[in-house]
Amino acid sequence: YIQVVGERGASGTRVRPAHAAHFPSIDFYLDDTLLDGSLDSREVQDYITTTAGLHVVRIRRENAAPNAAPLFSATVNLQDGHDYALALIGRPSALAILPIDDTITAAPPAAQALVHYANANIEEPNWKIGPVDVYLDGALQVAALNVGAASPYFAITPGTHEVAFFQTGANPATEKALTRKTFVAIAGDAFLIGTGRHDDDDDDLTDLEQRVFIGRSAIRFGSALLATVPYTVLPTAAALADVNNTLNIAPGARSFALPITNTGARNTGLVNVPNRPATPETPLASAFELAAGSPVLSTIGATLRPADVRFVGVTSSYSVTRNLDQFTYVYFGMASYAPWATPNEVEYQVWIDANRDGRDDFLLVNANQGELAGGMANDVFINVLYPLSASGAPIPTSQFIFWGTYTPPIQSSIDLAPFNSSVMFQRAKASDLAMPSNPADPNSPKVTPTRFCYHVETRARALNGFKQLVDRVPDAASAPQAVCGGRSGVLYYDIQNPAIAPINTSNFIFSTPVAARPIFLDVQGGAITGLVRGDVLTARGGAKLLVLHHHNAPFPQAEVVDVRQLAVGTP
Which parts of the sequence belong to the DUF4397 domain (predicted)? Predict the structure, then answer.
């Protein structure tokens, strides 16, 4: 791969919320943006990008409405190109925001980490903790660190360390530390370790009880990694595939085949080579019944355009399995108005109301295995199905499926083309959408839905770290759906009764017939195939097919095909 490194520039200011006060859990806002809900004491969250200049930090009660009166607010002035931890410090009736400058100006020695320390306290007339001495593994690291101050960065070796904070001048051999904490340093990471006020449940606010808080991030200094671009001798986007824009269905037909034309360089089918059935020139397409199209957003710039939804489609493998058990999957196809460099920069979220009661039950979203495991983002792309709590919040899970249903970006010579693309699809097992048969009894037997309602939302890392909505399909104010409990802003899918259900039953690439996918060889002479229901097609007055060409250049990657039921006697 090639790494592109450049200056941070005007958009390089980052902030992260930290809770270092003797105070309950809070909702932490920067201006009107929620940085973190239910931020607990000792927590330090991840960075988001913001603008330089004056901002207002607003602290609200946990789970309070976004427009509720804040418990506390303070203005902060952020410098261009700097990183900050915005720490809530103090106690009830004596709170403050301490902007801790986390900016790194130099790299540590090879295979080491960085750490700096903060005295995150605020003094009162009758409460003065004063400067603190910081010890690391029993050795003095910082002497007399003033209240409200942060130290420079120090290099540390990977492994387990213990940090201890003492009042300045205390003898660590004979006197008790204000607080201490063990942590594990990882090469290439930067640590913020601070001490803040804490009451050990004794209601004595005159003592000097403290508690350690720790923030961790990847080292970023001077310049930033802007992109990691994989490359091969043959460009990934070297196909030039398309299909006819009309598909005529003969009377009584139960299946269809739509021919593919490909005049590009990536145009090779499967080969008879054990464990490597494809070549670097094998292109892929996926296909779905079109569920919705969305107009281009006029209110966003080029940075957010990859999260601007163009098309949404859906299909399933029910036409092959004829059941709703473990081998039946539902597939959602999506296309945007511009390509992302990496799918880690956008989130396409499918919110699913499995029992059609007007409340979403599951969230299906693209992600990566690194961040799902609590680490840094990596290129093992996945999609994750989260169950939702009664409040609508995702419940942590380890359940995921690999991008494109194979280990990405390349498996057994099939290149899944996740980079520099404007199309993707996600998959959920139908049985994983099962809900209790008795809504009042969560322990009652679960029933897999044959029909469900859903909508798609997008978010972008560049817009407050995925915390703000970019696009929604359909629009929240769209016509209500009677089959979805009268809910507005949703789409409807009947697994057992689609008008058209694209599925590959001729060559399975890596599948067996029982695990057929809507993935096709996008080659000259290939075809998009699947089931068609003439009765449903006629009742709906037609349908549309969404075809995604994964190895075409970003435009035209998505095509829409009119599906028409021919009348009896039509030649």
Answer: 15-126
Distances (CA, A) of 261 to 266, 285, 316: 12, 12, 25
Residues 6+ apart with CB under 8 A from 368: 343, 344, 377, 378, 379, 380, 381, 382
Tell whether 140 and 80 lie within a shared domain.
yes
Domain residue limits at 288: 266-358+366-371+379-530+543-556
Q: What is the pLDDT of residues 240-255, one digit of tens each?
A: 999 999 999 999 999 9
114 Cβ neighbours under 8 A, 6+ residues apart: 104, 108, 153, 154, 155, 156, 189, 190, 191, 219
* Calpha distance 450→517 (Å, rounded): 19
Residues near 295 by beta carbon (within 8 Å), at least 6 away in sequence: none
**426, 331 Cβ separation under 8 angstroms:** yes
| AA identity, residue 500 | I
Give this prediction's pTM: 0.61
Q: Measure CA of the first residue to CA of the last residue in the chain; give whole Å.
A: 54
- Please provide the size of the chain in residues: 571
- The 10s digit of each residue's pLDDT in 443-452 is 899 999 999 9
* 222, 271: one domain: no
